[in-house]
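Incident log entry.

Two folding requests arrived from the same account within the same minute. Monitoring flagged them as a possible duplicate submission, but the sequences differ. Recording both here for audit purposes.

Request one:
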Amino acid sequence: MTIRKLMTALLASVAMTSGAFAADLRIGLQEDPDALDTDQARTFVGRIVFESLCDKLVNITPELDFIPELATSWEWSEDATTLTMQLRDDAVFHDGTPFDAEAVVANIDRSKNLAESRRKSELASVASVAATGSHEVTFTLTAPDATLIAQLSDRAGMMLSPTAAAEKGLDLANDPVCSGPYKFVERIQQDRIVLEKFADHYDAGSYSFERLIFLPIPDTTVRLANLRSGDLHMLERLAPSDVAGVQGDGNLSFASATSQGYQGITVNVNNGARSETPFGQDKRVRQALSLAIDREVINQVVFEGTYAAGNQPFPPTSPWYDQTNPVQARDVDAAKALLAEAGLDGISVEIQAANNPVQLQLMQVIQSMAAEAGIEIAIKATEFATMLQEQTAGNYDATQVGWSGRTDPDGNIHSFMTCAGGLNDSKYCSEEVDALLNAARTSIDPAERKASYDAANAILREELPIIYLYHQTWLWAMSNKVQGFTSYPDGMIRLAGVTME
């Protein structure tokens, strides 16, 4: 081979390699998602994957306004008990099944009636849904539901292929079929999830990458090292301690958005035998732990002051936050007095936490604070999806776990605190709280809704099935070659219009 031919071959090889490299976007996730079935799923990172895999009926703007996606428009009846949606006529599922009104009916039916569905409480107000045209659906409600559009902008509104759902049943989680801009290729647990571009998507031209590769890397330090080395192009949930370093790195860029959600400690109060402890059965013991924790110190020590201390399901920036009940100050003497009132000199509690450095550091700080009040905490570091499985099964005393937050306040509280809530792993149950949270759903008056939430939260601050700790800020880091990324308060990664130089 001549030198010229050799150089030509080498240049062609480099060009092909560069093209293939640019065609992929590798995203580092803090955890491995749970089931890739929109009805069974509950993890935040799962929603990140679904954002590219599964179109929704409704989406949101960065300002949290609702906008069309698979539904092109919608209209409420005068009494707000009927919702009629017009649908796209140019969408198709990844298996070739057309997207139409019958597909929506099948999806809502599955979400409401599948035994394993976690969407039931989110759609509890829907009495029926009918195809009133080839691309028109009508939801009939049992009562007005101020939350329904918000629910349809999340997993309850994500559309699965009815053909695939009927054929695969629960195995759909291993081979999901949606209608989003990317389709499922493979998943290797704890290693990667691969999606490839769906050429027949109605907006395929807005998506630049041929493949998306999601890589779960729980260790924040390792995740950032992979970004710096070029093995990742983007990561979610940058550690707060690394923000300054990323901002000062000319090869990287940084983005952030205030979260709608919370982090806390979910307590097993009624979920099987593990709840039958003083911690699970006596609210005074839970109150003692809450009083032993200095939330402002946590924010400064663990999160470099980038987060907000919290004691409610809504962040202080939310209009739904109860300003009359700010975060309580730490009071170790009061915590000890509550334990004594409960007849205890001290108590031991096992709290499971995700096996990433940030959450484990958080728990170590809480462990130290609690010990001063006579509460000995054993920390059980657990892979995230496994941790949630244990929690659902009742195989836990308490879990340090959070929620990414929802546009409507109902999404931060109803599924967790109502007796039949799909995410109520503590199995807390109060008829009074149920009545208040159900009333908040049916009112379209913001003042009435807020009064219901304030009343419910007053009870929950006393009972503490969840001990709220803080509200995080979503932090992203990415190669400076990644262009066009917009941060959203829901923490999702939306890739329409995103490119890589």
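Request two (distinct sequence, not a duplicate):
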Amino acid sequence: MIRWVLWTIAGVVLGIVVHLSTVLFLPRTATNDAYSRLAPLTAINAVVPLPQPGPGGAVMPFMDPSFATAVCRYDLSEGPLKLTAPVSQAFTSVSFYTRYGTAFYAITDRAAGRRSIDLDLMTQAQRKLLPEEEDVTSADRLIVDAPTPTGIILIRALSPEPSLLPMAQRAVANAKCEIQKS
């Protein structure tokens, strides 16, 4: 009897280990992830507005038709990135994801407190190369450390009514995502 209990416990533990390792490893082996889906539609280090989702489908799953969306696939191998996103009248958010879809930073227009969301995206190694500026505070210059050199920036603007959708689309279309000139 004890032998069967031990075999059952060993089977359950093995099942848990296999399940967890599969769930944690699967995002790294998926071939149709967000970065791959956006590759034919977008250029590197450029903001591209995404088409609105419709009955025939959407570029990305679970896209909300109340939001105008733009995306920037970034590559920091050539240097830090400067992101400027004008805010819309209703609500604007900017989210940062690694190449494999892990969210590492997000900011809204309410947190930015300005007419645009301005920030610098760079790796930790690039940040260490920045000169120390005593008179520049975090309120003057927002710097985001990217855990990976490639990833996705998602810019979304809310359209509270269908008639305001063009305004939200203009807001995300005017965003800029470009390598900083030294």
